[in-house]
């Protein structure tokens, strides 16, 4: 939830009008107006603009290759590679259990399509697991870093 004391410092004219306004409808209008200004100025990050993408890989080498590919393309800011874990799943009408390595890929919504394309073109599975989960909260500094590194120009390929 945004800090309305920060709004009082950042948007003093609207805050003054908000405090003097009678009626719930007008107060709601001013709350949204203040939030819009704060978001546009970057004082409140849009937390739902970030995603954590989960992707399973058959082994560590495949996971590292995919991680490097998406990072070099700036489609992600960070990729965590897990130790081997056992995945159980249905495939071709049969229950399977295999060792897999999980990727936890941090990205932005604007890079999601590019990320999915990069993973799908290099992944050995017919149907790679690609699940994007919204990041509902996070350190503003980390989220800003994530936005910065995924919008930076690619200096090393």
Automatic annotation (TrEMBL):
One of its GO terms (molecular function) is copper ion binding. Pfam families: CutA1. InterPro entries: Ion_tolerance_CutA, N-reg_PII-like_a/b, N-reg_PII/ATP_PRibTrfase_C. Gene3D superfamilies: 3.30.70.120. It comes from the Bacteria. One of its GO terms (biological process) is response to metal ion. Belongs to the CutA family. PANTHER family: DIVALENT CATION TOLERANCE CUTA-RELATED (PTHR23419), FI09726P (PTHR23419:SF8). This is Divalent-cation tolerance protein CutA.
